[in-house]
User: Fold rRNA-processing protein UTP23 homolog from Cyprinus carpio carpio.
Amino acid sequence: MKIKRQKHAKKTISFYKYNFCFREPFQILIDGTFSQAALKNKIQIKEQLPKYLMGEVQLCTTNCALKELETLAKDLYGAKLILQKFQIRKCKHMKDPVPASECLLSMLGETNPHHYFIATQDQQLTKALKKIPGVPLLYIILNTMVLDKPSERTLKHVEAVQLGELVSPSQQSSIQTLKEKEGLSKDSSDRRGKKRKRKSSNPNPLSCLKKKKKPMPQQPKKADGEKKKRSRQRKRRPAVVNEAAVSSNPTTA
Assistant:
């Protein structure tokens, strides 16, 4: 039975990892009903839950869940001690506490953006949670912890995303980052819409000066009659040499 439960849990966790981007450490929101059931069945939540989910976990609760246990009977004192050991996440009801079921629903919102697991034994809360897509549910039955299979609302949501009718959370985050890079998000548009008021100040005296025109460099002009002459060397004619030789020789005369 233990091997079958772990296989079922592994399959369910991989479903939420792939379709809803759940990552370790898993955040487990626990209410008083779950801690009371764990106390009765002698279940060590801190030791057994990471083994069952096969990963690191962060056990947490809310201030409203602790206040609810304080107002109830003294038999729930042990459950309160268990919850006090976990991290307390801030909720919207710090000043005016509300029932734990209402507080947990407000922590999830409409899409469970913080990827919480919910551990509860409250049947009414479980029905309400199954209407929100992407919420893994944990409960205790027969002295064992069980991770519930995905609800019909969750399966329909995944089917709609695969058909292209809806956008998955990972696609929404990537679209948001692209919008921020391109300056199309609301924050960037608000920043662009707000214009800074410039303080009135005297003009810069250097800017009032007229710009001096730089003189253009003039190239020297060539004279019209100037042309390059080629130097030629005249060679002496051999006839002149012959005449000098005849005059010097008397026999020829």
